[in-house]
Specification:
The chain has ten helices and 20 strands. By secondary structure, it is α+β, with helices and mostly antiparallel strands. The strands form four sheets. Strands 5-4-1-2-10-9-3-8-7-6 form a ten-stranded mixed β-sheet, sandwiched between helices. The chain has a five-stranded antiparallel β-sheet with strand order 16-20-17-18-19. Helix 3 packs across helix 5. The radius of gyration is 24 Å and the shape is globular.
Length: about 325
């Protein structure tokens, strides 16, 4: 069983943005945490600080009882035993794929390297090729296998499936999650792909752009964060098309423009486009005016005005008869 990893750091660059990531609790062994958010908020910087490739200015990075960095003392990267898959992959160009995996401490030799590569979808022929003879997705699989083979104390992955096609990502997500949990060490994954974060992670840490740079906005169980974002910035980062601040009437009822909000209503109300259903005017939770219809294959994206901007999605049969300026009813699916 591994040891927990505490991350509370501030990293500044002269003339550049400041990154602040102070996790509410340590990353637990066997727990997969996704560091999620748009580009430029400091996700990769955070990963590099944990790996020891960049120094922190303030805070504490601590693995078990061992301080890795406190802004004054810093353990070098080679002493941290991290399994790192960065965006640059850093494979040895002169070594074959299986030799890249087998290289280094505790890797386990050729048999284990080939077995890992096969598990990740690379057969004997690909295992015998050098990185320059492999596709981008195949090189990414080699880098993953190398990190998994090294018996790391902590796993750090920066966009680990970005070079794979959609079908490849779907196949590897489940396998990678199972592998990370089996290692029983803290695992931190950087991603801006919501589906990837939710498929891989137990815990979701959302970063957003703040006044001075990137900052942590919400930290919690992945499903809880998705269902109850604390702020508009978090909701936007999570990809919600509809984000409303509710108002309450004299009877205590909650509204977003002309839409009646039911159930538990927080400081921010969120809905994906698929969460809204078209009805006849007067038959839903409120009425709206269609302002735009845009076809997206078998469905249409609809923009409406209900006193607040609304984005909905409708099947072709529903959307074909609609025209801009038409009044429709809307029902929030809950």
């Amino acid at each position: 069983m591994g040891e927990p990893l505490l991350i509370r750091l501030t990293r500044s660059r002269p003339g550049g943005p400041t990154v602040r990531v102070h996790l509410e609790s340590p990353l637990r062994p066997g727990e997969v945490t996704a560091l999620f958010g748009p580009s430029g908020v400091g996700k990769t910087t955070t990963l590099r600080c944990v790996a020891g490739l960049e120094r922190i200015d303030e805070g504490l990075i601590q693995h078990g009882s061992t301080v890795w960095d406190d802004g004054r003392r810093r353990l070098p990267p080679q002493a941290r035993r991290v399994g790192l898959v960065g965006q640059e992959l850093a494979l040895f160009p002169h070594l074959r794929a299986w030799e890249n995996v087998a290289y280094g401490r505790d890797a386990g030799g050729e048999a284990r390297a080939r077995a890992l590569l096969e598990e990740l979808g690379l057969g004997r022929a690909e295992a015998d090729r050098r990185p320059g003879q492999l596709s981008g997705g195949q090189r990414q699989r080699v880098a993953l296998a190398r990190a998994l083979a090294s018996s790391p104390a902590v796993m750090l992955l920066d966009e680990p499936l970005s070079a794979l096609d959609a079908s490849g990502r779907d196949v590897l997500r489940g396998l990678l999650r199972e592998r990370l949990q089996r290692l029983e060490v803290p695992a931190l994954i950087v991603t801006h792909d919501r589906a990837e974060a939710l498929a891989l992670a137990d815990r979701l840490v959302v970063m957003v752009a703040g006044a001075e740079g990137g900052e942590l906005a919400q930290d919690g169980a992945a499903e809880a964060v998705l269902l109850a974002p604390r702020s508009e910035a978090v909701a936007r980062a999570l990809g919600y098309e509809n984000v409303w601040t509710p108002r309450h009437d004299d009877a205590g009822r909650a509204w977003a423009g002309a839409l009646r909000l039911r159930g538990e209503v927080g400081a921010v109300v969120v809905a994906f486009a698929e969460d809204l259903q078209l009805t006849a005017p007067g038959a839903g939770d409120g009425d709206a005016t269609l302002t735009e219809r845009r076809w997206e294959g078998p469905t249409a994206l609809l923009r409406l005005d209900a006193g607040v901007p609304v984005v909905a999605r409708a099947r072709r049969a529903e959307a074909e008869g609609l025209s801009v300026g038409q009044r429709v009813g809307l029902r929030l699916r809950r």
